[in-house]
Structure formats: C-alpha cells, structure tokens
Input
Amino acid sequence: GAGVSQSPSNKVTEKGKDVELRCDPISGHTALYWYRQSLGQGLEFLIYFQGNSAPDKSGLPSDRFSAERTGGSVSTLTIQRTQQEDSAVYLCASSSRPGQSSGANVLTFGAGSRLTVL
Amino acid sequence: ELKVEQNPLFLSMQEGKNYTIYCNYSTTSDRLYWYRQDPGKSLESLFVLLSNGAVKQEGRLMASLDTKARLSTLHITAAVHDLSATYFCAGYYNTDKLIFGTGTRLQVFP
Output
C-alpha cells in the first residue's frame, strides 16, 4: 500500500481481556517496528522484525505481550490479560532496510492504534 | 544500550525568536534522525543526518550532527506558530533498533 496501515484506530477494552492490533507495512519494506507511546510521553521500543530473521523482542514489557509477522508482511501485536497501564497509542513503522550505512532508512509510521483499558 | 536524551523537554517561544533543541546520545550511532509529531498525529520524518558534520536545512529548521560529541541540534529560526509540535531525535543501536529521545514539545505563541 501507499502507507503503513494500522487497525483498529481506537480500541476500548475491559481489564483482563485480550486485544490484537494489526499493522500492514508498506509493500516491499522488510523491516517492521512496534513502539508504544503513553500519553505525553516519548516512544518506547517494543519489537522489531527484519525479513525472516528472529525478531528482536527486547522491548516487550512483559510476557503478556507478543507479536507475529506472517509472510514477511502483516504483523499482529497481541496483549493478553490487559491492564490499565497498557493504555497507550501503539505505533507501527516500516522501512526498506534498517542499519544500512549507505542509505537513509527512514521509518514510515502508521497512524497508530489507541488502546484504552478500563 | 543506546540512550537518547533531549533538552529542553518543553519549550515555549515567541514568534520570530530563535532557539535550539539539543539531542545527546550515549553510544556510537553514525546516523541521527529528527521526527515531528503534531498533536494526535503520527510521526513525520524531518531530517536524516548520515555523517559527522552533516547539516540539513528546510525552511526555518536546521539540523546538525557532531558524532564526536554525540550531539545533534535542531535550530529554529524566526519561529512561527505552524512549528508548534513535538520534535523527536532518534539513533540506531546495533544498526537495527531505532531508539527515540524523550521528545521536545514546542509551543510558539504570538
């Protein structure tokens, strides 16, 4: 697609429920990132996928958080047994190839999924 | 782990004035990025600084990179209201993880 698409744009859930957030990156982009942005805060790195390599999960805050990327394209971030502190905007971004010193490798961000846990 | 710190965190400035936002990072990162975020919106790329001494300018914004000092600056010249937004710098850690700074919230008033 022309840009990074995220769904849902807004999700309100009850504490203890599971939620799934979807990211559809730009076609051809091999790198995909998930970040979390709490109200008025900066961006917290969650997880990174590059091609078929094992994902870098070092930013996931707890084992309630997991993510998959199927076929090197669409990614799903799953939060199990949601807590109120999970309320935030979850941003997805993609790029053509990260860490390439000869290129700019600018991340293109989606509009985000705003999660509210009651 | 790369740490990226910005200051100030909040900046209120009058139209027409100049100011600089500072971005310090803790370990080697040969590229530095600046992004802008409008309230309720996602992030938009502003500048990519690829080497020591790099300087990029667009309109009233100018960004520079000093890899030896591990410092990047974003200079605002003759601020206008349309520049009101939150500005983030970011650097790559281990060539693949983009780490963002805390952000600087800029408000420009008449």
Observations:
- The domain at 4-109 of chain B is CATH 2.60.40.10 (Immunoglobulin-like).
- The CA atoms of residues 24 and 58 of chain B lie 22 Å apart.
- The mean pLDDT of chain B is 92.
